[in-house]
Amino acid sequence: MQVNWLRGSMETWAGDAVIFFDFEKASDRLPGLKRWIGARAKGLEDASAWLDFKGKPQQVSVLFNPGDALAPRIVCSGLGPADKFEMEKVRIATALALRKCREMQLQRVILPLMALDGLPESPAESLREAVIGGLLGLHRYSGYKTRDVDSNDFPEILLLGDEALHGPDLESLPVHALAVTSGVCLARDLVSAPANIVTPSYLAQVGGEISKRYGCLLKVLSFEEARTLGMGAFTAVAQGSREPACMIILEHCPPGAESQRPLVFVGKGITFDTGGISLKPSEKLDAMKQDMAGAAAVLGAFEVLGRLSVGRRVVGIMPCTENMPDGQAYKPGDVIKSLSGLTIEIISTDAEGRVILCDALTHARQYKPAIVIDVATLTGAAVIALGNQVAAILGNHEGLIHKVQEIGRRVGERFWPLPLYDFYFEGIKSEVADFKNLGDRSAGTIIGGIFLKQFVSEDIPWAHMDIAGTAWTTKDLSVCAQGGTGFGVRTLVELARQWED
Ligand code: BES
Ligand code: ZN
Ligand code: ZN
Predict the structure, then answer these.
(1) Residue 169, domain member (yes or no)
(2) Phi/psi of residue 139, nearest 5 degrees
């Protein structure tokens, strides 16, 4: 896939189609299409004059042979009502327009900056989000089919600018959009791939490739090394699995950033969650290959940080293991000692995410982080509370939570906060250890957060993203085909890009 700026005179372009957008109401029409067609094809400058285009959300119409309009097709994509506008509409509209172009087997599609004129955000931001949405919408997990394989290629998106507006933001837009989407799609593919392929060692290998490509530091702690270091919680979960577990640590440290306090991203890497001895029911158990989506999001973010040479020091910590029932597996009732020294009574071995994450969070302290963010498919309760398009965000710092929510909103990842009042700790009090790994059924997502909170120091801003609902989609979301979503990558990257001490 290529994304390039078109240069040269109008007559030398050879696009197969040009994309425009419009709102539903005539009074809210965007000016781009009219300017494009101008005097060339009178009567067609308003897409509502086309046979059936109404600017409805998800609606895409194609006008063939629009007179002398410099491309044999105009593809117009609906943004819905103007008063309900948000950038996600542009991402979706571009995704659907490009999918339509792929269906028509087009080679070169023009996306003009002027198609986004009149939108509330800056032209650079609108176009960037359009391209990102488009690329994400085109992505499909290639899988392991040996028959009836869809071809995934769509050769070229040509961006057409406006000399007057062309600044550095627009110049770097193709590189930025391709980097971000490659990271998101890496995460998606890791989540969609089966657990017999994506093992902890496989994730470590992906970490190794990223570290080689971009020169970041990689450390992979083996089970034995983790045990020697005292990571008794992580190894308790890992001890029931034959598949070798590991703790992957990546450090993106651009020249000159050595003295920065890093942002630390922690990702849950359960490559398959059977529930362990507290075995899950077998129905839909295959979905538990997605339980490493937090680690995948961190790996995806590192891919982008490397590709864009982001000038911020960032550390990624990914505890990776299967959660299996086995003769050696940890059991309900066991008391384990975490790296922090705190002891945990295991009530359910299926609440394993928090158990591996707590040692990763403790390990994070030694980096003296500016902030810590963990990303995890932690609780089914997050799916019940917020569904599949909004992740829960919890933490010890209002400002950070707000920032994550705000950045997420801009890049197309929705977060909604849940509280972490101290009294929730009552729910995990234990008779035999410092606390339990779960409470009763109430406030499941919050209890997960309260548990993790015990392992972060109060003076370090920390946020916990529960992405159990958003890591996977069973229905096509236009910007994301069915499968892994790569949720979290864009927010993590943007946090690192924007971070200022
Ligand atoms: N991996 C699951 C959570 C999950 C559920 C992820 C649905 C993705 C989709 C997690 O390890 C788990 O099993 N959580 C339990 C916690 C409970 C035992 C406190 C749950 O949510 O039921
Ligand atoms: Zn579990
Ligand atoms: Zn899990």
Answers:
(1) no
(2) -65, 135
